[in-house]
Specification:
About 55% of the residues lie in helices and about 15% in strands. The protein is an alpha/beta fold and about 375 residues long. Helix 3 runs parallel beside helix 9. The radius of gyration is 22 Å and the shape is globular. It binds NADP nicotinamide-adenine-dinucleotide phosphate.
């Protein structure tokens, strides 16, 4: 999922995470033992690539001649570059000089003229150009980046957006370079914090162009180098379609819609804000979702009361029927390019940041989330 982009709120979160995480340069990530595996996911057999097959020594060998130019220092640029650096690889950062990212990179120890450069300078130095600008920024910056993508280089993305919707972005890579993807399934803050804990995010990998004959191997190795614990295979197209659907659906858009609908019904029927919030959000995030994460939905149902279980089993099909057409419309909107077009148009507006701030404030000001502040303050660990 790609939670994204630049609001000052997002920056505050990024800064807070950077502050709370141990400094990058003193980190000693543990190495978990895992391997390449053919596994059954339900009834389908898939291959997954795991970190133990790509220890630091192997990464050093595969990438002995490479310099990684990480273009963009948002949440993914920050996490992936620091993890690669901690994995012993040669990394330089390329961002707009004196912009917010430039300053963030300096705070994290990147040195102007040594490891921190303009986008053009970094692209010149990099043998692997890692395009981690925002997706709208990738469209703008493509004419700047493209001339540096000379034969033998590798172009890397963490999203299939730019290349698959090239009719909207103009991103058509030169034919004589490898084009690969590793897409962490989580925010950059998680990519970094899991790495520092010796754990690893799950990511997908894909190859769009394989000129060297080594693109897949390099995509897997790079996926490990940026901090993944395991990687599953996809294509650029499937990655972007599933990712855009997921974040608009269950991961973010859907969950806000469902939470608010239930909260509003409870409030309209005379329940207090604390009761409505506890029955809608707090119990979900604090008690039940962690149970789903641990052992699946049936297990969560099994450890709940018989009353709760009966009702959940009865009502789940009703919600399925109500929401499936919405998911179908959503997927179609992603597939036919409506969602990417809207993203590019909206994010290119000069007042984009102010508008985003206003939209996020509107959510923060909803009674449900204002009530949530008080509920969270009551958690014993927050007192
Ligand atoms: N965030 C996620 O959870 C996530 C997860 C998986 C994959 N991804 C993918 O990873 C990539 C990076 O995402 P992100 O969330 O890290 O992005 P982000 O935080 O929005 O990154 C913003 C970066 O892009 C730069 N930028 C924006 N517009 C620009 C322009 N017109 N010219 C030059 N630089 C520009 C910003 O520089 P300034 O500071 O100078 O403005 C900043 O360094 C995207 O493809 C995204 O889809 C993201």
């Amino acid at each position: 999922m790609s939670t994204r982009r630049f609001s000052s709120l997002a920056r505050q979160v990024a800064t807070a995470c950077r502050r709370s995480a141990p400094r990058a340069f003193s980190a000693k990530p543990n190495t978990q033992v895992r391997g390449v595996k053919t596994l059954k996911f339900a009834d389908t057999t898939e291959i997954v690539y795991e970190r133990s097959d790509y220890p630091k020594e192997k990464l050093a060998k595969i990438f002995a001649k490479d310099v990684f130019a990480v273009i963009g220092y948002g949440t993914q640029g920050m996490a992936q570059s620091l993890n690669m650096k901690d994995n012993g690889l040669k990394v330089v950062i390329g961002v707009r000089k004196n912009g917010a990212s430039w300053k963030d990179a300096i705070k994290d120890g990147w040195v102007p003229g040594e490891t921190l450069f303009s986008i053009e300078e970094a692209c010149e130095k990099g043998t692997v150009v890692m395009n981690l600008l925002s997706d709208a920024g990738q469209k703008d910056a493509w004419p700047t980046i493209k001339p540096y993508l000379k034969k033998g280089k590798t172009l890397y993305f963490s999203h299939g957006f730019g290349v698959i919707f090239s009719d909207q972005t103009g991103i058509i890579p030169p034919k004589d370079i490898d084009v690969i993807l590793a897409a962490p399934k989580g925010s950059g803050q998680t990519v970094r914090s899991l790495f520092l804990e010796g754990r690893g995010i799950n990511s997908s990998i894909a190859v769009y162009q394989d000129v060297s004959g080594e693109a897949k191997e390099r995509a897997i190795a790079l996926g490990v180098a940026i901090g993944s614990g395991y990687l599953y295979e996809t294509t650029f197209k499937k990655e972007v379609l599933s990712d855009l659907t997921g974040e608009r659906g269950v991961l973010m858009g859907g969950i806000q819609g469902m939470f608010k609908a239930q909260y509003d019904v409870l409030r309209a029927k005379g329940h207090s804000p604390s009761e409505a919030f506890n029955e809608t959000v707090e119990e979900a995030t604090q008690s039940l979702y962690p149970l789903i994460a641990k052992n699946g939905m049936d297990w969560m149902y099994a450890v709940c009361s018989t009353t709760a279980r009966r009702g959940a089993i009865d009502w789940a099909p009703e919600f399925y029927t109500a929401t499936k057409p919405v998911f179908e419309r959503l997927y179609e909107s992603v597939e036919n390019g409506t969602e990417t077009r809207r993203t590019l148009t909206e994010n290119a507006r000069p007042d984009y940041r102010q508008r985003l701030e206003a939209e996020l404030k509107e959510i923060a000001d909803q009674e449900m989330w204002r009530a949530g502040k008080t509920v969270r303050s009551l958690r014993p660990e927050n007192q």
